[in-house]
Each structure stands twice: as C-alpha cells, then as structure tokens.
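pasting for ref
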Amino acid sequence: MEHIAGKDRFQAFTSTLEERITSDNPVRVIDAFVEVLPLEKMGFRVKPAATGRPSYHPKHLLKLYLYGYYNRIRSSRKLAAECVRNIELHWLIQGLTPAYHTIADFRKEHPQALRKVFKAFVSFLKGVDLLEGDYVAIDGSKFRAVNSKKNNYNQAKIDRHMAYIEAKTNEYLQELEQQDSQEHKAAMVKKK
C-alpha cells in the first residue's frame, strides 16, 4: 500500500481565492462588518492625500486589525507576515501586503476610531453568537423571585461593566503599542 500523495508544487491550479474560503469562515464576518461601517464618521481618514505615494484604504487595514484581534495576533510585524502567508488574509484584504510600519502607523493615527470599532465589533460578535457572553432579557412581568446579586443588573453594575470593557480595550491597544515598540527596538539592535 502506498502513502497518500500530495499535489505537484509546479502544477497550475484554477481555483480562486473565493473558492478556497468556506462560506462559514469568520473572515467573511469581518469583511461584511467593515464594509457597512461609516468609516469617515467614526474618525478614519478615508480620502487619500493629493500628493505622495497612494495609501491603503482604511477598510483594508481595519479588516487586518480585526482579523488580528479575533485571532490574537497583536504584533504589527506578525500581521504583516500573515498578509504574505495566510490564505484567509489574502482573501480578506485582496492580496495586499502592507509593511509592518504601515500597520503600526494606522493604529497610531486612529486610536479613538479603533476604540469605537473594537466596541462595535465585540457587540456584533456577541450578537451573532461568535463570541461568548451573557444575555440579559427584560420583560414586563412583575412577580417576586429569588435572585442572586450576581445575576441582578442595575445602572451602577452596567456602568462598571462598560468601564471594564473600556479598560480592556485600552489594555489591548497598549499591548499592541508595546509589542510594536519591542519589535522596533529588536530590529534596531539587529541592524547594528
């Protein structure tokens, strides 16, 4: 009996990127989510500069960041490497391969807009059951029940939870900044 054989590396294939990404792949959710965002209203610079090299559209870099967020890739260098080797990212950002510096600069230029997007993205993922979370249902019934303090929500508790989400968003953005800074320092040392 023979082993299972792979495909010839030099053989040409006629499949498209569209065919290689399954219909239930999470990158399709990221793509659809970003495509409907009002990027300019959220604070992203959408119009390209009149002079200089053409820039990447913010939607592509935003898709890249959300992909990194969803897959726990925090480093701009790692995101840049994934753009070259990852078939999901080839599909998601249409084969673009931005440099790590471009990715890091995008984050530095749009910190407030990214906060808004991350909050909206987490809410969206919870809403379509792609992220675990607690659900709260309210109806008009009035009856006496035994309810633990853990499952009882009031405005103060909601405010604390929103502050927690804000703190986690800030923590995530700081992790990105630290990772980029460490990689920049390592690259400088390596050059010397």
